[in-house]
Amino acid sequence: MQTRGVTMEALLEAHTRLVAALRSPSCYKHPATTVDVIETHISTVLLAGAYAYKIKKPIRLPFLDFSTLAKRQHYCVEEHRLNCRLAPEWYLGVVPIVNSGNEVAVEGEGKVLDYALKMRRFPQQALLDCRLAAGELLPDAVTRLADCIALFHRRAARADETDTALQAEQRLRPVTDNLAELNELLATDMPAERIAFKRAEEFLSRQRECLAAWFEERQAHGYVRECHGDLHLGNVALLAASNELVVFDAIEFDPLLRWLDVIDEVAFTTMDLEHRQANCFSGLFLNAYLQRTGDYAGLTALRFYQCHRALVRAKVNLLRAQQLAEDAEGSNRSEALNYLHQAAAYTDPGWPQLVITHGPSASGKSTLARQLSEHAGFIWLRADIERKRLGGLSAETQSGSALNQGLYTPEATDKTYRHMFELAESLLGAGFRSSSMPHSYNTDNALQRRIWRTGQT
């Protein structure tokens, strides 16, 4: 492949030489005793002293084009803009890498060789995938991450419902493209890969056809936003000193990979947690996000997006396998196969179930419902939260309503239970397990009558 007369191989060789030169601490204006390098399939990150410098590889792939200096500068600027939405104190700007007196320098004067995105550095062990592997990830951090993403989605730019470039057919193009690219990468001599891929591919095709109208409605209802686009555990850090969560590395190279249905973003995080055998944290994250946003309708396509996201990670691992040495190639191929099997597993939703917990205050309703949501994959519907939502209040806001007044009139209570019945019905129809926790009543018979009346009208 060539770019204006220069082969891609030559560009990558020049990039490799540049990175080798940048391993010298003398290239930087600030103190650095050593320079560590992290390679991804599309970027090189240099860790020097208190800072990290991310350089885009001069490559062109079906889903991105960093083949020219101008394009790499543009995407560095765009990446800075996007990530300042979630981590403004950590993204410091775009800096030139120059040839200064026949020496390579960062932020110096001279002929520009490339550009880097400069960031504050944090320890690799602070990344959530590392914390999870070390047994250091706690439920509080998972809940706070869900709250952070819910707030981010609420504030993110919203797609205009008339924007044809973001209509469902265009938004779902990455699903089609990923299937085609993954199909090309799969080994012909590995039938297990092919079987899992075919099962996932057929599921995505069926769901896309069945949910065509639903995908369009989501844009009209404001659920398509300029999201992060790559929200897996390796792109979130939890800093020990401040207990701060830092979400970084949003996708800059293709708008269609970040202008998403918000439930697509949630699907990526939950898929990643489940891939790492942290299903309890996946349930915790999902339920915390849903309770904060009320977007239970999004669950209609959750498994569709989880399946797609698992296939994306399979592709990324296969791309890495092509770039790495033979021993590392086998590891990445094995990981790709794990993702393919995970994608295939999302095609079977299992049996829908409904559990209703009820009883006097302090009888253990919340404890049981929480355990079901975290350990058995249930969606937790809470009457207290939904009652406030219907009344225009957030979950944390005190209603100030006395018994039989405000949010607790018989009419408000009937409205709450009708709403919860409709939510549970839609969740069961989509193949989910639902745990519904109505408010306390003095007698079980009163609750049963109310549920019966709600379900019959």
From TrEMBL:
Organism: Alkalilimnicola ehrlichii
Pfam family, one: AAA_33
Protein name: Aminoglycoside phosphotransferase domain-containing protein
Coiled-coil ranges (or none): none
SUPFAM superfamilies documented for this protein: P-loop containing nucleoside triphosphate hydrolases, Protein kinase-like (PK-like)
Signal peptide segment: none
Domain of life: Bacteria
